[in-house]
UniProtKB/TrEMBL annotation:
This is Leucine-rich receptor-like protein kinase family protein. Residues 1-25 form the signal peptide. It comes from Rhynchospora pubera. GO terms for biological process: brassinosteroid mediated signaling pathway. GO terms for molecular function: ATP binding; protein kinase activity. Its main location: membrane. The keyword Cytoplasm does not apply. Gene3D superfamilies: Phosphorylase Kinase, domain 1, Ribonuclease Inhibitor. Pfam families: LRR_1 (PF00560), LRR_8 (PF13855), LRRNT_2 (PF08263), Pkinase (PF00069). It comes from the Eukaryota.
Length: 792
């Protein structure tokens, strides 16, 4: 008994020791392998901890061991810039390799075929180029996860990929695949996650029926893959689907009703396709639906009442369709609905009365419909509402009190409705407030003494506001307040308002004069103070505003002469009519373009060469000097010089005509820039235009160049600007399309789409300003053959 016991103990000790010993040896050699890998990788700073004095190698950064041997290497986001070392596969038990988000160069790392235990391979978001190898099926058959997204892999996706039979996840999105993808992918019957999105496949293709065989699929992501045709009925077999994303394609036909029977569906994105018909014809079984985005299609009919069964629904995007009818009142009962975008449809009736009562509503965009009635009383009950965008409808009534005290609000766009009553003064103390666009209503009320700190855009023209002009906020970019009843004087001091681009306060009752300090408004492009009661002279410093292109001071009581410095401006629009200005018109305005600019100023005059052009009287020759000439001299001059004068006159006429022609032409060419913004930002078009230098070019394509511009020398404030030259004669249809599409893009805030901050346009080019994202699908946006989505 005892002996047996000792023997077994002894054998246990021996076997354990030998196991430990062999493990020790293995560890020792693995340590050597790791140091070799480190050195082949160029000793990157991220691998500093890979050294002999920092303990067991299993504790080194990014490593994980099983039974003392390395089984996983996780080095994503480590600034690795050298190729993956060949010796990686000397780690015999390596099963998990994650090197995503580095700058790994070169072609697909075929030597990984030798990592015989590999199950998980992630090389997403690197700098890989070239094709995927046609023998990619030589990757170990143990592979269950393959992610090569966000690289520059190109051409065909190899047929052999369909032989990696154990794959559960295959991510191919965000590359430069421009060939085709093989139907053999449908052989990967274990596949749960499959993405092909954001690839520039050249040949339009239908979704293969065979994909219906991928019955374990939970996620199918085919955004922007040049997919056409109808959604195949075969996909109705994908009953495990949780996430179906087919956006930015040309999928047509009706929206199949079986989609609403996929019981596990969480997310349905079908935006930007050519789907027609009603959104739902059958019943809804996918009661877990969390996000619906079917925007930018041609869907008709009304918004189904049955959406009120979707208790988890958080995001409902139906914008840019042909929906008619009323918004079901029951949507106001959904407990989780936070983001509603129904804009640009034909909806009528009221908003659900209880909207905001039962969910923490965050964003409401229903602009461009035919909605009427009052705003729901409790939109902000969840204390979460950030934007309310309801412009271009027939809404009426007063602002509900709950909205007036909604401290989360950022963006208020109520314009072109029939709202009336006092614009609540409490709104002005909302600290996050960024945009207020409430023009063309019947609001009364006064502005606060000082505009809210964060306010960048205030558009309240065509209302009945009264009181004095407030002190601006430092971030204010646009203040349009024309056609109200403002009185009092303009701010005495403009210092501190560097980013102001437009100041329009025409048709009010403003008195006093314009301060010389206006010259600090270096971003000002539009100044409209027409039809007020301004007195004093035009400050010559206005001529120092570098980007001013629209100046309207007409219909005031301004006096004095027109400052010579004003000639520095090359305004597209200049109106100084109906004042008491006097003296001579500066030389550069003697030109057809300004023939309506100086009318009804009895004391303004010009020389005889331009008086008919400008509709102004000829200035009296100053007699004091001519007095000194004797009448005889004059007589001699007039007789002797008569012929010469006629000669000079003809030449002069020709010259001036040429000059006027030249001027007008150069005036046409003068680039005046118009900015359309879609998001809040901290820069001006001037800063962008300044950055359009050759040294900032990061790429160029058929239609124009792409610039990377860092604003304010701030590395965190970088934008990508695509400049599209449209030439002199942009076809008006093309222009219309471009504008419509840029508008759409600007309004979309989709996770997968790079944010278009603004569009700046001039006569001969368009600038699309995007958020700059390194290694993102932005590349494709910027360089791709545009299917331009988005408006200017
Ligand atoms: C070795 O690794 C340790 C722990 O990470 C680190 O503190 C030390 O600086 C490293 N030594 C060398 C020589 O890199
Ligand atoms: C290491 O592996 C263990 C067991 O497989 C796992 O629980 C742990 O999360 C892993 N740690 C890291 C950092 O990968
Ligand atoms: C490492 O892999 C080999 C076969 O490749 C296997 O025999 C061994 O048990 C594995 N070691 C561990 C600790 O998993
Ligand atoms: C990578 O580089 C960036 C920028 O140089 C730096 O901020 C970051 O800390 C680095 N990350 C690592 C893991 O070294
Ligand atoms: C795999 O390893 C073998 C032997 O070490 C080597 O001959 C072969 O070239 C490697 N294969 C690849 C694809 O690197
Ligand atoms: C990837 O492609 C983009 C655009 O096609 C290009 O700008 C970039 O330089 C490429 N990157 C590499 C590493 O080739
Ligand atoms: C696909 O793109 C590559 C470069 O990324 C290019 O060389 C090739 O010609 C393209 N193929 C086609 C069919 O246009
Ligand atoms: C795959 O799907 C196609 C078309 O839907 C079908 O004809 C074929 O039999 C399926 N193959 C398998 C192996 O199920
Ligand atoms: C859908 O598109 C395909 C391919 O472009 C076309 O052949 C078909 O006629 C279209 N169907 C409908 C209903 O428009
Ligand atoms: C409600 O939405 C939030 C995110 O907006 C989500 O995390 C949560 O799970 C949802 N709750 C329900 C019951 O669906
Ligand atoms: C909506 O909420 C407000 C308070 O937030 C409450 O007074 C009102 O009764 C609620 N309405 C309904 C229908 O629940
Ligand atoms: C401006 O807005 C930001 C968030 O958008 C907020 O954190 C900040 O407090 C606001 N500033 C002021 C002075 O209210």
């Amino acid at each position: 008994m005892r002996t047996q016991h000792y023997l077994s103990l002894l054998s246990f000790i021996i076997s354990t020791t030998s196991m430990l010993f062999s493990a020790y040896c293995q560890q020792d050699s693995e340590t050597q392998i790791l140091l070799q890998i480190k050195s082949e990788w160029g000793n990157p700073p991220a691998l500093d901890s890979w050294n002999l004095s920092s303990g067991n190698h299993c504790s080194w950064l990014g490593l994980n061991c099983t039974g003392g041997v390395v089984t996983s290497v996780r080095l994503s986001n480590q600034n690795l810039t050298q190729p993956i070392p060949d010796s990686m596969c000397l780690l015999k038990n390596l099963s998990y390799l994650d090197l995503a988000n580095n700058e790994l160069p070169g072609s697909f790392p075929k030597f990984l075929y030798n990592c015989s235990s590999l199950q998980h391979l992630n090389i997403a978001q690197n700098l890989f180029v070239g094709t995927l190898p046609t023998d990619i099926d030589k990757l170990p058959s143990s592979l269950t996860y393959l992610d090569v997204s966000g690289n520059n892999f190109t051409e065909e996706i190899p047929v052999s990929i369909g032989r990696l039979a154990n794959l559960k996840e295959l991510h191919l999105d965000g590359n430069l695949f421009n060939g085709t993808y093989p139907v053999e992918i449908a052989n990967l019957v274990n596949l749960e996650y499959f993405s092909l999105a954001w690839n520039p496949f050249l040949k339009p293709a239908r979704i293969p029926d065979e994909f219906g065989n991928l019955t374990k699929l939970k996620s199918l992501w085919l955004t922007q893959t040049n997919t056409i045709g109808e959604i195949p009925f075969a996909l109705s077999k994908l009953t495990e689907l949780e996430h179906l994303d087919l956006g930015w394609n040309q999928i047509n036909g009706t929206l199949p009703s079986w989609i609403w029977s996929l019981e596990k569906l969480n997310i349905l994105y079908l935006f930007s396709n050519d789907l027609t018909g009603e959104i739902i014809t059958g019943t809804i079984r996918c009661i877990n639906l969390f996000e619906i985005d079917v925007s930018l299609n041609k869907l008709t009919g009304s918004i189904p009442e049955s959406f009120s069964n979707l208790k988890h629904l958080s995001v409902l995007f139906l914008y840019y369709n042909l929906f008619t009818g009323e918004i079901p009142a029951s949507l106001g009962l959904l407990p989780n609905l936070t983001d509603i975008r129904l804009f640009n449809n034909n909806l009528i009736g009221q908003l659900p009365e209880t909207l905001g009562n039962f969910s923490k509503l965050w964003n409401l965009e229903v602009n461009d419909n035919r909605l009427s009635g009052q705003l729901p009383a409790h939109l902000c009950s969840g204390n979460n509402l950030v934007s309310i965008v309801v412009f271009n409808n027939n809404f009426a009534g007063e602002i509900p009190p709950s909205l007036a005290n909604c401290n989360t609000l950022n963006d208020i766009q109520l314009y072109n409705n029939r709202f009336y009553g006092e614009f609540p003064s409490s709104i002005w103390s909302i600290t996050n407030l960024n945009t207020i666009m409430i023009h063309d209503n019947e609001f009364t009320g006064m502005l606060p003494k000082r505009l809210p700190w964060n306010l960048t855009r205030l558009e309240i023209h065509n209302n009945h506001f009264t009181g004095e002009i407030p002190t601006f906020s430092e971030r204010l970019q646009v203040f349009k307040g024309s056609n109200n009843n403002f009185y009092g004087e303009l701010p005495e001091n403009f210092i501190g308002f560097r980013v102001l681009q437009e100041l329009s306060l025409g048709s009010n009752k403003i008195i006093g004069s314009i301060s010389q300090s206006i010259q600090v408004l270096k971003s000002l492009t539009t100044l409209n103070l027409s039809s007020n009661k301004l007195t004093g002279s035009i400050p010559d410093s206005i001529g120092l505003l570098p980007v001013l292109t629209t100046l309207d001071l007409s219909n005031n009581e301004l006096s004095g002469s027109i400052p010579q410095d004003l000639s520095n401006l090359k305004p597209n629009f200049l109106n100084l009519s109906a004042n008491n200005l006097s003296g001579v018109i500066p030389q550069s305005f003697k030109n057809q373009a300004y023939n309506q600019s100086f009318l009804s100023n009895p004391d303004l005059c010009t020389d005889s060469n331009s008086n008919t052009i400008l509709n102004l009287p000829v200035c009296n020759p100053t007699l004091s000097s001519s007095n000194k000439l004797s009448r005889e001299l004059i007589a001699i001059f007039s007789t002797l010089g008569f012929v010469i004068l006629i000669g000079i006159g003809i030449v002069g006429f020709l010259l001036i005509r040429a000059q006027i022609k030249g001027k007008t032409a150069s005036y046409d060419h003068e680039t005046s820039w118009k900015l359309t913004s879609f998001h809040k930002f901290d820069f001006t078009e001037y800063q962008i235009i300044e950055g359009l230098k050759e040294e900032n070019v990061i790429g160029s394509g058929g239609t124009g160049k792409v610039y990377k511009i860092s604003l304010n020398n701030d590395e965190d404030q970088i934008v990508a600007v695509k400049r599209i030259f449209v030439g002199h004669k942009m076809d008006s249809n093309l222009e219309k399309n471009f504008n419509a599409e840029v508008n759409i893009l600007g309004q979309i805030r989709h996770a997968n789409i790079v944010k278009l901050l603004c569009c700046i346009s001039s006569m001969d080019s368009k600038l699309l300003v995007y958020e700059f994202m390194e290694n993102s699908s932005l590349d494709r946006w910027l360089y791709g053959k545009e299917r331009m989505h988005g408006s200017c």
